[in-house]
Design brief:
Elements: E1 11-21, H1 30-49, H2 55-76, H3 92-117, H4 132-145, H5 151-154, H6 167-176, H7 185-217, E2 224-229, E3 237-239, E4 245-247, E5 249-250, E6 256-261, H8 264-291, E7 297-298, E8 301-302, H9 307-329, E9 337-341, E10 348-355, H10 357-370, H11 375-378
Parallel strand pairs: 1-10
Antiparallel strand pairs: 1-2, 2-6, 3-4, 3-9, 5-6, 7-8, 9-10
Length: 385
């Protein structure tokens, strides 16, 4: 097959078009990574200064990220060629957040939770358990006050003393400050169970991702990436300016695709290294949270925090944003002008291809993430239009 002179060819019916990565060959779009990074940055500050205020926020962020990773694992079946969709690198900051809440809640409220869970202790409404002697005294005083002719009652002062409406008010005023209410032990227990489940989920997803990345990396298969364009439906073969030829394969939604050498092996290697590093820093943070005194401070900042996972997690999200921006501008061919030749090899025309930008990345990533949804995502015709 001779290589046509691209500069002398007439323009195709589609003179200009885009070239985008196919399903499973794109990272999370940078706009999504930037939104998640923007949400994590203030959350990290809250976790450092007042970790109690960021518990719900941390749980929601972890649950969303874990759900996305599970969807990606299920849709791609953890195929090494689609590593950029099921990349498990973003879990480290959520693992550190759940570890922080789990250890600090257990440390500060563990005795109350254990007392509430004990089948031999009858907890009161405020979560405090009076002793048997105190219960007898309270009942005796109450029975005396109920008697109308009780001399104790008759000697009451004109200005009676106003007592707190519940033991919770006294406890909160002394220990937590006026205006803050102490949570019931069942709520604290629910938080511990929830964050414990989410923390174990992050660990399991990281370990499973590491195992599959190692397996896929040692396969002898040469990885390829698929690039698609509406212009490719016009011809059966594409030629670049260096006379490289590519067979055009039909794809969904009126596009055709060509295959080029892929970078999946580099992404798999990076996944193995980074996930191992993440597991190490998670252990380091667990040691810090378990052993560092809660009163230890440096410039009025408490040091009992998961510093390693916070810094590494923010760095990973920032890196993903940067790589995502580069991805929107990447172009795998040596030049924009290419020649398209029909299946009969009798005619050829010229078209110009350009990077698909953010839109192309969104299409490639979403197609890979939600492809297991079938018609719920692709529509009743399965995308064959």
């Amino acid at each position: 097959m001779s290589c046509p002179n691209i500069t002398s060819l007439d323009a195709c019916a589609v003179a200009d078009s885009y070239l985008r990565p196919n399903a499973g060959d794109a990272l999370m779009p940078w706009i999504c990574s930037a939104i998640l990074l923007t949400l994590h940055l203030p959350l990290v500050i809250v976790r450092v200064l007042r970790w109690e205020s960021g518990q719900t926020w941390s749980i929601v962020m972890a649950a969303v990220n874990i759900s996305l990773i599970i969807f990606a694992y299920r849709s791609t079946k953890m195929d090494g060629s689609q590593i950029m969709v099921w990349l498990p690198l973003s879990l480290v900051i959520d693992a550190g957040a759940m570890l922080q809440v789990l250890i600090l809640v257990s440390e500060e409220h563990g005795s109350r939770i254990r007392a509430w869970l004990s089948p031999h202790i009858c907890c009161t409404k405020v979560g405090m358990v009076p002793s048997a002697g105190e219960t007898y005294k309270l009942e005796s005083i109450k029975s005396q006050e109920d008697q109308p002719n009780n001399p104790v009652t008759q000697l009451s002062t004109p200005n009676p003393i106003t007592y707190p409406t519940s033991l919770t008010d006294t406890t909160n005023s002394a220990a937590l400050g006026i205006g803050r209410r102490q949570r019931h032990p069942w709520g604290l227990a629910a938080v511990v169970v929830t964050v414990g489940t989410l923390f174990m989920s992050t660990l399991i997803l990281q370990i499973v991702g590491l195992i599959y990345a190692v397996q896929d990396l040692h396969q002898s298969t040469t990885f390829e990436m698929s690039w698609c364009s509406p212009a490719f439906v016009l011809g059966g073969t594409a030629f670049d300016v260096l006379c490289g030829n590519y067979t055009v394969m039909p794809a969904d939604n009126g596009t055709g695709c060509i295959t080029l050498p892929g970078s999946q092996s580099q992404w798999l290697s990076a996944t193995v290294v980074v996930v191992i590093l993440q597991l190490v820093v998670e252990v380091v943070d667990a040691v810090i949270l378990a052993l560092v005194n809660s009163k230890t401070k440096w410039r009025e900042i408490k040091m009992k925090r998961p510093w390693c996972t916070m810094f590494l997690g923010i760095s990973i999200w920032a890196t993903l944003v940067g790589i995502g921006v580069i991805q929107t501008m990447s172009f795998p061919l040596p030049a924009h002008a290419i020649a398209l030749m029909g299946p009969d090899y009798k005619s050829a025309c010229r078209t110009n291809l350009y990077p698909a930008g953010l839109r192309g990345t969104i299409i490639g990533w979403c197609d890979g993430l939600f492809q297991s949804f079938g018609s719920l995502y692709l529509g009743p015709e399965g995308g064959s239009y």
